[in-house]
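Fold this sequence, please.
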Amino acid sequence: MLSTLGKMGRLSGVTKGPEFVRQFTKFWLPMGKDVVVIGGSLVGLELAEFLAERGRRVTLLHEKQQLGLPLAMPRRWTAVSDAKKHGVQIHRNAVITRITEKSVEWTVGEESFSAPAAMVVYADGTTSAAPLADELRDAGIPCDVVGDAGAVNYIHGAIHSSWKVTTQL
């Protein structure tokens, strides 16, 4: 189905620029309204902001006090500020205790919390790797790798790599 959508987008010309895709994702994303992002590094912060900007209720849980590492201080402050501005609920020093079908539970010190979650995304300690793509290529099957599987980057880089592949279909 996604392949068909990609071909339709290419033929109609709407995917010639990332702006249409950016606007489209404000109306449709294949996930529920409540999302918990685990990890407050670069990837987690930017993902949380991206989802909140697109109408998701986002809770970000980070096991340490400092968010946004390894970003430089000014960029870190901006990333945290932007996430909060879009309504991301940020919890630092969080220890995840349980993930259920509908929620995530955690503690901060002695206090317990929970947040509704239609989807949970683990976005901490991210490294790029695409072992399935490597196996497919070794078997002679061509494939493209996009997003952080190809290279850990800002969310804009991940979107751009996806856009680049879909416009070459």
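The first strand starts at residue 34 and ends at 38. Residues 41 and 67 are 6 Å apart (CA to CA).
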